[in-house]
Amino acid sequence: MLAASYPALIVTGPPTGLGLAAVQLQEKALAESTSQARPQGSPLEVFTVMLRLGCMAFGGPVAHLAHFQRELIEKRKWLDEHDYADLIAFCQFLPGPASSQVGMGLGLLRAGVPGMFAAWFAFSLPSVILLLTAAAGMGALADSNLSWLHGLLAGVVAIVAHAIYKMGRKLCPTPLHTSFALAAGVIMLLVPHTLTQVLVILLGAAAGLVLLPVPEAKPDPGDDIGVSKVTMAAGWTMLLVLVVLPVLASLAVGGKEPTLLNVYASFAQTGALVFGGGHVVLPMLQAEVVGPGWMADEQFLAGYGITQAMPGPIFTLGSYLGATIGGNVAPGVANFLLYAAAALVGLFMPSFAFMTALFPLWHRLRASVRARQALGGINAAVIGLLIAALYDPVWTKAMNSSDERLSVAVMLGSWLLLVTWKQPAWLVVVLSALAGLALGL
C-alpha cells in the first residue's frame, strides 16, 4: 500500500571526477530513502498487537494515544515521532473517535487496508465482548432493584461534566470560543433535534471562518505519507456504498421503525457527523435511539455508564445499543447479535471511509489556515452540544431517583474521586453504582 521509490544504482566501471560525485550523491539518496522506508507488517501482526492494547486501554482517548506511542512508535518503530504527530492531527479533522482512527491509521500504514480493519477489530474487541455481556445481563436486571442504576447515572453526571471541563479548557482557549460554545448550547436546549446538532456544527464552522483570527501558517513539509490511489478510491467507494446509500435508502423507506437497515443507517449517519471524540456521540446517539422509541433513556444512559468501565473506545457503546434494540424488537440470540453488529459497524464505517479517502490529501489540508479556522469554530460548537447533553438527558435522568439530595451527594462524591483523587472513570462507575444500591436511590 505504501510506495517508496528507490533510485537504481548501476556502475559499469570505476567512477572518476564528476562521475564519482554523482555516484556519491546517488548513494546518499539511496541511504536516506532506505532509512525513511517503513518496514511493512502483516494484518495478523497488527491484530495481535492491537488486541493486547485493547485489553489494557483504560483511561479514554488520551490514554489510548499514550499506549500507541509507547508500544508502536517508541518500541516497534511503526512510525517516527513526526509522522505520528501528523497522524493524530489528521484524525482531529475527521468526524468520529480520534483515538480509534489513529489506531486505524497505524494499521493502514503498517499493513494496508486489511491492517486498518484488523487494528480496529482487535482494539475494539475486548470492549465489545464485555458490553455484549452487559447488554445480555441488563434484561435479567430490569425487574430487580434499580437503585444501583440511579447511582450509576449520578456517577455519569460527574464523568461527563469532567470530560466537558477538560475538553473546554483545550478547545475554548479564548472568550470568543467560549461564546460560540455557550450559544451552541442554548440553541440545542431551545430546539432539541438531530438536525439542530448538524446546524450547530455548520454554524460553528462558519463562525470560525468569519470571526476567529487567522492562525499562523504552517508550511507544508512535503513529506506526505504515500497511500495508493487504489486505497483512496476504496475509501470513496465505502463512503458512497456503505454510508451515503444506506442513509438515503433508510430515508426513502421511512427510518422510524427499528429495522436492521434503519439502525445501520442511523448509526452510520451519527458516525459521519460526530466531531470531537467519544463523549460527543452521547447527545447524537441519544436522539437517534431514544427519540424514535427504540429504547428507554434509562437503558441508554446505563449503557453509557457501563462503557466508562470498559477498555477501548467509547464508540463501542454502539454494540451495547444495537444489542439492546435487537432485544427490544424480539428476543433471541440472532436479533441480539445482528443488531449489535449493524449498530457497531454503522457507527465506525464513516471512519474507515474518511481515513482511506482523505489521508492522501492530508499534507494539503494541514497547511490550510482556513481549515484550521473552521475547525476552531466546530470544536467550540461541540462543547456547546456537550453542555446541552449534560443537562438533558444526563442530569435530568440522574435526578429521577427516590431522593434528589442523595443523587447530588453521589455526584459530588464521584467528582471528588475524579478530580481531586484522580481515580479512573471505571472505578468511579463501579463505586457510584454501589453507592446507589447502598443508599436505596
Question: Which features would summarize this protein structure in a list?
Answer:
disordered N terminus; single chain; 441 residues; 0% strand; mainly alpha
Notes on the protein architecture:
With 441 residues, the chain is an all-alpha fold. It has a domain at 43-119. Helix content is 74%, strand content 0%. The longest helix is centred in the first third of the chain and has 44 residues, at 98-141. The model is unreliable at 1-37 (pLDDT under 50).
Task: Furnish the topology, listing elements before pairings.
Elements: H1 18-36, H2 43-55, H3 61-75, H4 81-93, H5 98-141, H6 147-171, H7 175-190, H8 194-211, H9 229-253, H10 260-273, H11 281-289, H12 297-308, H13 317-329, H14 333-358, H15 362-365, H16 369-398, H17 404-420, H18 425-439
Helix pairs in contact: 2-5, 3-5, 4-5, 5-12, 5-13, 5-14, 6-12, 6-16, 6-17, 6-18, 7-8, 7-16, 8-16, 9-10, 9-14, 10-11, 10-14, 12-13, 13-14, 17-18
The radius of gyration is 24 Å
Briefly note the structural class of the backbone: mainly alpha
Helix content: over 70%
Shape: globular
| Count of individual beta strands | 0
What's the main sheet like? Answer: none
Helix segment tally: 18
Oligomer: single chain
Low-confidence stretches: 1-37
What is the end-to-end distance?
56 Å
Strand content: under 5%
Name the average pLDDT. 81
Order of helices and strands: HHHHHHHHHHHHHHHHHH
